[in-house]
Amino acid sequence: MPYSTKQRPFHLTSPLSEDVLLLHRFEGDEALSQPFEFRLTIVSEDDAIDAKKLVGKRLTLWANRGDEDDDGGACWSGIVASFGRSGSQWFAGAGDKQEMTTYEAVLVPWFWQLKLVEDCRIFQNQSIPDIVDTILGELQLGKHETDLSGTYAPLDYCVQYDESSFDFIGRLLEDAGIHYFFKHDPHEPADVLVISDHQEKDYKGQVTNLRFAANWTEQYEAVVFALTRRQRMRTGRVMMRDFDFTKPTQNLEAGVDTMLTVGAQKSFQSFRYPGGYLDHSGGDDRTKLAMEIEEAGHELLDGASTHLDIRPGVAFQLDDAPNEVLEPAWRTLRAHHRGENNLDDDSGDSYYRNDFSVMPLALPYRPPRDTPRPRMRGPQTAIVTGPAGEEIYTDQYGRVKVHFFWDHLGKSDDKSSCWIRVSQAWAGRGWGAFFLPRIGMEVIVDFLEGDPDHPLITGCVYNGDNTVPYALPGEMTKSTLKSWSSKGGDGFNEIRFEDKKGSEQLFTHAERNRDARVKNDSMEWIGKDRHLIVKGDQLEKVTGDKHLTITGDQNEKVDGTVSLNAGTNLQQKVGSNAALDAGTEIHLKAGVNLVIEAGATLTLKVGSNFININPSGISMQGTMVMINSGGSAGTGSGSSPTAPKDPLEADQAKPGEAMPPPAPGDAPPPPASPQAGVLKDAAKSGTPFCEKCEAARKAQASGQT
Fold this sequence. Notes:
The protein contains four helices and 30 strands. The chain is mainly beta.
């Protein structure tokens, strides 16, 4: 005789025909902020049910009293996560025994399927409820309702990394103090995910009355028949700290004491860092939430009942309850269901029981933070990004944005990530070392506390596109700091070190200007030659004395005019010969005295005429010698030396400010000027020796061409 679901207190509806699946027994667990799971033992006269007809399909477990016209009662609707044959069993029905094939199935909510969806993605400027809505809206796996009374600020940056969407949503909701449960409507069988932060005030008009009966005897009566109230020890204070780098001296410590009077150890403190906030208001909210999580598990009422409506998310009052469990209302936290159908005449009646745990509705409920946060297993690399057409993109703190290689939804633009701080070799108050990664560079990204939401750039690396400045391994003795002109330039600045034995070199290249400013002494020592080529003008200004000592020759060539203006005296002394040759005129003029003195002979010569003065006398020879006979004195063109131009000042850099030490002690000294070791042209006084010019001058003097 075929078995039927008719007159059964429990039955199933599935994609298969009505009587193909007969529920034998079930156990199920439900809890706030957890997916339910029902383990079903099913029998069938069909010994070859294809699992693919059920796995991933909707199945509904109905609980009623078996009346043919009764389509009400309670139900649990979900997705079949697994289905398989487990054996066979004999049943006695209507006087006959029949062997039935047994199957085991697991029923879960549609939300459970998010455990099978893993992703790495970034959310920016979205609140936690918005992030959850985004993911659920993209997947379209089932219905959900958001029933929130709190306000949830947008998160600047939130990362789902190498974790299932189920875990990601779960930990976000836990972090915000939001819970969820599942609603099953008998009139529209489906599991509806309800995301809620309801507290006592939100349950107005939604509290069910249940009867307590310790001496319960009626098999089918819905009553609560066992209760145990317990209270647990909790910490007496929660304290947190955090750090905001934009306000590094701000004390971001927050704390809150418990309001519990029983089991709270006032001397016990739970200290947590980082707290996950950036201002005092956020600290107050975070510590309050953490304390509410602690207090939510303080007082529990465990019970047993036959009431089908004791489910997570349901609040109820107990009528006729003992005084020790009197409470205005209770909130259901979890329930364990078990039931068995009346398939076998030999096994007696069907039954249903549940065990449950509830907490006082007056206490705020916050889900425990059980879902682990993903921890980055080490540094990663990423590419620096920015707006199209830009080469450098940063903010006032020297932060940049990057595109992670795992971010398959990112567009490698100025919205690819949050602003990320960049580690520098030295960081003072307006002084230190500073190198800003540019768009397209591959950088090393580490994570504070291993948290994917808090990246930190610690360095840069070369790759197949961004190659090293000099070919390796051939140029492996070279070390360099080489920049690139921006925007759109092809120039560069460079400081390069060549350490090859016998070819050691310090090389500097300035694409445009090089300024050096020395506030005290500048000293330079050159072991051999010094060459200086100035394409334009060379201007020097010495406000004190200038001393030049040359132990060899000094050779100078000026194609234009040489101007020398001495404010007081001009002293020149030549150890041997002094020759002055002017192509047109030599003019000597003294304001008072002009003395020309020779130790042996003084000669004045014009053409064949001359005057010779020597120790033996004065000799005069001329075509005609005229004394007091007219004529006039010749005049020279006079002296008009060109005034030198003033040299330009070297560029200046502002000093940084002293950093207040985090603890008593002196702040570290500011770094020396990075230009202190380069060549100082302004301190040099001689024109460099040029071999080609000297050879040409000597050839001209000897009459060679």
